[in-house]
């Protein structure tokens, strides 16, 4: 059941953030959305997660739409948003138990899943019994990942999943995503981290000027001899930046 985005547009305070954005992601695909800061990536993710309403256009998950099957979609959707909703007054363990209740998981099954996720993503499992408000940025990101995965979502949406993670944790996340992606699942991620993202992605879209300048497979995009990074920079920054105006600083 593909994730389909059709002619999405969004305007904030007179500024056109997204204009006619459309693409389709199929099962077993990991789609990477890349763009500059402020390009509208998080806005698009919030629309996919039903956190922001688009001005026009539509989003569907196979035959499901938010207008008709909102609850069904959210039972099959895992989201790690830019602003982590983890409750700082709760411990990591309490928060995962809370998320499990929202998804109506049996108590024993919720505990089993939470424990296994914590053992994988956290170096010290006793951190799960500390309040989230005391967590570092990276630890908060990890508990958000655990919460997004607890109900085994069919569609997984991740906004900057590698930000704040140390190299060991980032490598763990790469291995996990490579294993999690299968013929019944879809992963959508937005990340500025090329080194880790390119180990997972199968397809990508380049967002610039409110529209997608490229949508396709990694193989199609990397058909030239240039690296993925060089190809992306050529799309996002066709005019090479120089240091001429900064001679006073760098000379």
What's the topology here?
Layout lengths: L2 E10 L2 E11 L4 E6 L5 H8 L7 E6 L2 E2 H10 L1 E4 L11 H11 L4 H15 L15 H13 L5 E5 L7 H14 L5 E5 L3 H4 L5 E6 L2 E7 H4 L6 H9 L10 H4 L1
Q: Class of the largest domain in CATH?
A: Alpha Beta
N-to-C series of helices and strands: EEEHEEHEHHHEHEHEEHHH
**Count of strand segments:** 10
Overall pLDDT level = 89
N/C terminus separation = 56 Å
In DSSP terms (H or I, runs of 4 or more residues), the helix count works out at 10
Strand content: 15-25%
Largest sheet: 6 strands, mixed
Domain module tally: 2
What's the Cα radius of gyration?
19 Å
Counting helices, strands and paired strands, the structural category is alpha/beta
Shape: globular
Fill in the CATH topology of the largest domain. Answer: Rossmann fold
- In the sheet with the most strands, the strands line up as 6-7-8-3-9-10
CATH H-level superfamily title of the largest domain: P-loop containing nucleotide triphosphate hydrolases
